Sequence to fold (216 residues):
Amino acid sequence: MALQLRVYVPPHPLIKHWLAVARDAATPSVLFKSAMTELGRWLTYEATREWLPTIETTVQTPLAECAATFINPEVPLVVVPILRAGLGLLDGAQTLLPLASIYHIGLVRDEKSLEVSCYLNKLPERLDPQTRVLICDPMLATGGTMMRAIAELTQRGVDPALMRIISVVAAPPALQQLSVAYPGLIIYTAMIDEGLNSHGYIVPGLGDAGDRTFGT
Ligand code: URA
Fold:
């Protein structure tokens, strides 16, 4: 069967609630940051289903021995927040994945040409091919930033089929581009919006996620 991009929009009331808070232009920066943290938490919860490697064993309760499932600590787990805006989702992701290594990537897109350039890359030279990578970027607009982040990861040995992306709002141009380049990819997003305006902003979207998270 041919691989196909999968985009999940979890129908969870907490995700809907925090998305509504984040979308509202009247939401102050401090509350916007909380909304991002909560969205990071719940989207990570959804995205890690059937993705976190587990081991089956037994434990001794005070009464009897019983079957038990643990997260396998031997399979490397990585979270990659794409700076700046991805930092907003990181706190929530990290509370659920406290043992994951965090590697930051700083990508910025030129407002006019929409070209993406990398100003920070903390990824190691090689990653174990078994590594599970959760990429955090709240806005999938043109897809250029995510394409670059995935390219940096695949160059280091990560299998796109072991990646999961969490985003808050995704737009069709990004999904189209990612589906052509990485058909096995899986994305968890709070919403798929209509499209982009002439400046590459998602409409209705939530504005500039980095500026709103950091009050700039
Ligand atoms: N980045 C943002 O922060 N917002 C958008 O709408 C698109 C890209």
